[in-house]
């Protein structure tokens, strides 16, 4: 089987990187009814294997449209992964479209037919229905890719200069089959493949423009590393893409590049290994054997929800008092009514008492408290939408700060208020290390 | 502005549906580092507007690659939405690529420059940096699409036969700009396109397959209405797509179709007008002048966060006690230690006391309480991951129920536990009407 694949790919042996493309088929994805999760999964594998993923494509279930785009891609790419349209029903037409594009006949593939019989027998089905039999009809000269979890047969077929890998669209079936695909590709590519690595440096508190200015010399200093910025509101992620044939050299340069970024904007960096703020917080709290509680007003539970998205967070997260009403701030968190009267619910004084209250009633070592105006309504001359006060209580002190964010939109403000509070907490518990 | 847009699209006046394509740009998506969520969102809007979404495309940040694919698409499609590459940094090259593809110059767009100045001034920035100024350089003859949440200007540009809408890749910026885009497209399409209307019936509690079964006669009964299902975990949205040249006829049939769906699966329907469960709850509580509190364990604040995503929720939402630890259940919500000892923290008895406690300490009229095992760890023989108990306290009674969901994944369980609790509350307060 592998030998036949070799022969398929032989023509191309120069020491250059292979161009890969991904094609997703299906009306449900084309029309937006279902979100495509296969492409990103496949792209990452292909990229790590050293191919250049040039394009993702998505098209519906029309046989002529599929055949047409297969032909197009076959003239651009060396390696193509196609998902979807291998099922038993009438609207599963990818095999037929592939035969059309390759200009070969659709024939009964004995190996595929045997495998489907096997598969159905294991599930106690004696007879193979016409619908399943259809799944054994594959383009002439195609090579089977085993599907251990379904009746749809994957297959490899060469069209023009490109080698196509056809897989089912069902994510878990596709994922179970990708190792076979990657093994074939690796065996071919390793001979002349480049090493790829990406470092993802996550920051909060610095917008994209100043981050870019701070790093403006990066491109001069690091010729072999591509610098990219990605805004994941309210965070900015700085990405370093390394690629070359010398693994050690690339990793050395990436390390230097990472150090350069830290030098320039380190105070905004909260992780260099893809961790979220809440994951970084969790790790430190576990190391410290310390516990955390939260008091939230305008963020309405978002901070607690982010903290509890982390598996194992029950080890350190005790409680959040989502005290939306002033009464609940007083009755639950024991904030003094005088403080609210004198300074207002959105004030440094109030959040300090909220933080202290959340810490005391739950017996936590640390706590953060947030009160602000998420909007759209509720802004005043003196406290506009986007104003937030954040309090932090630790083993010794209770401190509070007031910020003003420029956004008028409720969900955005909830997001950035929550991120700011978590970020301040992370800095506080880090600094103590 | 709209007049100028008219002139752009004039050439195409036959009464046929327009072909739309979507292009996502960015190395982070091309390489699989980030999953594209824009395409499905945009595709659904375009489909609902009556265009035929023919393809999705994704390409990296290389200016020549972008220019090349823009040219390709400009020969296939009538309407094209492009996202990404409008940021201030050096790897944001979409405007330049668009100019290249359209064979026009990149010029300083005064409107865009003014808007950026305005935007920055509101944020207290007096001077406009060269990087932000770059964002005002747009292809000649392009029309601005306002971006209220960022400095990246969207723009409309005609290339060959196609009208391109260029938008930022940041999802929340793109989503806030799409209404403008759809309004332009609608205005154009309605003039010479079929009447299109979609009804979105949102359900919770019934999986896609049984829903499909229950509605199997729909297609026979309603020839002119396309029936679609969309899984937006944990909800299933039933979509009725009406399309034709007789507006009244389509709307009559849609109404009948909606009634048919309600007859078959009405008990699972929580809105037929696109409202979320929390919006539906808010409307009823405001009508009743009633207040709500929540007690959360495994959902970790997600229920409160969903409730407070609704603008004006402070009118009825008072408090959520996110009591992750047993101690906080006891000290804050006054759950009896005996109850937790005897029945466990995840029990109908405990959630009933949690609901009652949250209601009493906050003086609310209603409350819901949730305690369960989100996983991945913490499951037992008798209470497996996916087990959740939900309590509801209203003006008269406190009731509790235990459910077992089949999922093993933490975030999925948080989502479905929260949805189940909100859904039960909605049914309760509805039934009283």
Helix content of chain A: 40-55%
Radius of gyration of chain A: 28 Å
| Integer average pLDDT of chain A | 90
Oligomeric composition of the shown chains: homodimer
**Strand composition percent of chain A:** 15-25%
What's the number of domains of chain A?
A: 3
Kindly provide the name of the CATH class of the largest domain in chain A.
Alpha Beta
Major sheet summary line of chain A: 6 strands, mixed
Which protein chains make the most extensive interface, counting residues with beta carbons within 8 Å of the other chain's beta carbons? A-B, 90 and 95 residues
Structural class of chain A: alpha/beta
Strand order of the largest sheet of chain A: 2-1-3-8-7-6
Contiguous low-pLDDT stretches of chain A (5 residues minimum) are: 1-15
General description of the model:
2 copies of one chain form a homodimer. With 433 residues, chain A is of the alpha/beta class. Chain A folds into 3 domains: 3-188, 3-Layer(aba) Sandwich (Molybdenum Cofactor Biosythetic Enzyme, Chain A); 196-271, Alpha-Beta Plaits; 289-429, CinA-like (Maf protein). Chain A is 42% helix and 24% strand. Chain A contains 17 helices and 17 strands. In chain A, the strands form 4 sheets. Chain A has a 6-stranded mixed β-sheet with strand order 2-1-3-8-7-6, with helices on both faces. A 5-stranded mixed β-sheet of chain A has the order 14-13-15-16-17, with helices on both faces. Chain A has a 4-stranded antiparallel β-sheet with strand order 10-11-9-12. The longest helix of chain A has 22 residues, at 410-431. The radius of gyration of chain A is 28 Å and the shape is elongated. Chain A starts with a helix and ends with a helix. The model of chain A is unreliable at 1-15 (pLDDT under 50). Chains A and B meet through helix 3, strand 2, helix 9, strand 10 and strand 13 of A and helix 2, helix 3, strand 2, strand 10 and strand 13 of B.
